Amino acid sequence: MLNSDxxxxxxxxxxxDAPWFIKRWQAHTQNTKLKGEKHLPWxxxxxxxxxxxxxxxxxxxxxxxxxKVDNKGIxxxxxxxxxxxxxxxxxxxxxxxxENLQEVVNLINKK
Length: 111
Fold this sequence. Notes:
34% of the residues lie in helices and 21% in strands. By secondary structure, it is of the alpha+beta class. It has one domain (11-110).
């Protein structure tokens, strides 16, 4: 939905609170499904170091956070979003997902 070039954004999945066997098996599989065939920069934060660096306030599985890094390297949280419980398992339709993301896409495109 962003229509941005690769390298203009990075997706980070915080899987640090998941049990070790989920980290090794299910989390990567689910994130790979989300990524699809696209060659997107994607980080699997297994130990929580990126979450801690960004000071993400929660590990709530239905919340997502969007940050912007300016030309000086300053990181700013610009959006906090929420999805339905079970979204990764198909609880949201493609239309619901698009509607959920539209606000943050508009915000990013303005910045």
